[in-house]
């Protein structure tokens, strides 16, 4: 993409009403625009990152054997009356009436709708196990929408639902989700720690939240510092292996790590040496639940078991905050100049800065770079505007592409361009061809 043809409405001023760094940077980098309280338009740069996050979530869900669907945002209130949540959910539920006076709602989550789909088609244990998920906009009329996309009212969530014959099978689905989430966050360059949590309005007491440690996080967390040493890496996973998934759950959850809702000071003191006891703030980027037959009982979702008897299915639901993750990624990856995208989610692979736009040699070298990267499948953002070098550098630093290639007449006389890492600030001179090879 050539910057002269792109739409990147960068702000010079720091927006006064944005309280946390990710919100400020998303506004300044022209990633989002508030439409109304807690509701945002995603501008081209923000939309690109959102799509990359979404893509990783899709790939990892499907790798775990989960099947994508797409359910609507608007739901009939009748389904929610069946589960009892139409009244129980409270003020966060946006209730809507259509022209025929039918009660509708903008879905904050989809347990009812997916259970309805399931009961309409599945009647035998032979069709189990089954996990369906979608990535769809949700609406929760949050009391205090704030921090930009971190606590929006409209937000993008991946929510998946498992249906199993027995509790053991459903717990395997739970473990499979935990494993797939570890992989998902790590691919984004993010450490998200599974912590014991509380069920809330989804219900169920078998649940973990995934938290990214950050001073601006809204959750208070307590953990054994040893949990921050764990990494998933690129191990081979057989998602059908009950033992392997269980072992990974144990590896990642046996040490103390809890949110304030479930924190127990006595157990913390008993189990964790004092020098490893940490309390901090965290951003909830996902949560997994096993809630048994709560919805299948209420809504009559049963299958015929191997013995011919009807059994209400065991279920769980599993969410990832896709739009919140974009904010969380910035909270975890920035400096005073701007964002520093991890390679896994960066909107462009590299930026090209032409120091003398209109000069035949620098223009030609930039074109060669731009096309050479494209030929390797790498999308660059080429700053071909007639701007001062300082302004171009400031824009690149703000939007945080992992690599910048600077092309100027002085370097080209020696046959080199400069490759700079956004994260370390280190630069190296090399030929155009070498720069393309290095980035590929
Ligand atoms: P929170 O405690 O932050 O209100 P939650 O526990 O109510 O979140 P869940 O029902 O667990 O949320 O939804 C799954 C995921 O959706 C959360 O882990 C979070 O990442 C994301 N999410 C929830 N509410 C919002 C919101 N208002 N804005 C953006 N993302 C959200
Ligand atoms: Mg909430
Ligand atoms: Mg929560
Ligand atoms: Mg939650």
UniProtKB/TrEMBL annotation:
Cell location: Cytoplasm
GO cellular component, one term: cytosol
Major localization class: cytoplasm
GO biological process, one term: prolyl-tRNA aminoacylation
Keyword Chloroplast: no
InterPro entries for this protein: aa-tRNA-synt_IIb, aa-tRNA-synth_II, aa-tRNA-synth_II/BPL/LPL, Anticodon-bd, Anticodon-bd_dom_sf, Pro-tRNA-ligase_IIa, Pro-tRNA-synth_IIa_bac-type, Pro-tRNA_synthetase
Origin superkingdom: Bacteria
Keyword list, A-Z: Aminoacyl-tRNA synthetase, ATP-binding, Cytoplasm, Ligase, Nucleotide-binding, Protein biosynthesis
Function: Catalyzes the attachment of proline to tRNA(Pro) in a two-step reaction: proline is first activated by ATP to form Pro-AMP and then transferred to the acceptor end of tRNA(Pro).
Family indicated by similarity: Belongs to the class-II aminoacyl-tRNA synthetase family. ProS type 2 subfamily.
Name of the protein: Proline--tRNA ligase
Organism: Kangsaoukella pontilimi
Gene: proS
């Amino acid at each position: 993409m050539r910057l002269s043809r792109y739409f990147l409405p960068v702000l010079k001023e720091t927006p006064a009403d944005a309280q946390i760094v990710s919100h400020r940077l998303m506004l300044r980098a022209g990633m989002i625009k508030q439409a109304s309280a807690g509701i945002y338009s995603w501008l081209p740069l923000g939309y690109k990152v959102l799509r990359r996050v979404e893509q990783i979530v899709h790939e990892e869900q499907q790798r775990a054997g989960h099947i994508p669907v797409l359910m609507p945002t608007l739901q009939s209130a009748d389904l929610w009356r069946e589960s009892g949540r139409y009244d129980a959910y409270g003020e966060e539920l946006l209730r809507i009436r259509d022209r025929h006076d039918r009660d509708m709602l903008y879905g904050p989550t989809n347990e009812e709708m997916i259970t309805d789909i399931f009961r309409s088609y599945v009647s035998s244990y032979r069709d189990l196990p089954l996990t369906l998920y979608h990535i769809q906009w949700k609406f929760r009329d949050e009391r205090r929408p704030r921090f930009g996309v971190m606590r929006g009212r409209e937000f993008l969530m991946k929510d998946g639902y498992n249906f199993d014959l027995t509790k053991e099978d459903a717990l395997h689905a739970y473990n499979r989700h935990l494993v797939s989430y570890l992989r998902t966050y790590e691919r984004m360059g993010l450490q998200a720690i599974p912590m014991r949590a509380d069920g809330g309005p989804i219900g169920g007491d078998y649940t973990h939240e995934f938290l990214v440690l950050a001073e601006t996080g809204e959750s208070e967390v307590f953990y054994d510092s040893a949990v921050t040493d764990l990494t998933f890496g690129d191990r081979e996973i057989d998602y059908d292996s009950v033992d392997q998934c269980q072992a990974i759950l144990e590896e990642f959850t046996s040490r103390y790590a809890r949110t304030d809702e479930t924190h127990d000071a006595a157990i913390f003191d008993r189990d964790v040496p004092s020098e490893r006891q940490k309390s901090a703030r965290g951003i909830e980027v996902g949560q997994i639940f096993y809630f048994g037959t709560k919805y299948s009982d209420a809504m009559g979702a049963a299958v015929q078991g191997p013995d011919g008897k009807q059994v209400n299915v065991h279920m769980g639901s599993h969410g990832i905050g896709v739009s919140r993750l974009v904010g969380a990624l910035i909270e975890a990856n920035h400096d005073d100049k701007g964002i520093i995208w991890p390679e896994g989610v960066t909107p462009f692979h590299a930026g090209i800065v032409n120091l003398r736009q209109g000069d035949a040699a620098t223009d030609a070298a930039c074109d060669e770079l731009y096309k050479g990267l494209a030929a390797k499948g790498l999308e660059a953002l080429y700053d071909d505007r007639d701007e001062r070098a300082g302004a171009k550098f400031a824009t690149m630093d703000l939007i945080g592409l992992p690599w910048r290639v600077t092309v100027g007449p002085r370097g080209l006389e020696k046959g080199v361009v400069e490759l700079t890492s956004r994260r370390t600030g280190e630069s190296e001179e090399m030929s155009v061809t070498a720069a393309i090879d290095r980035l590929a």
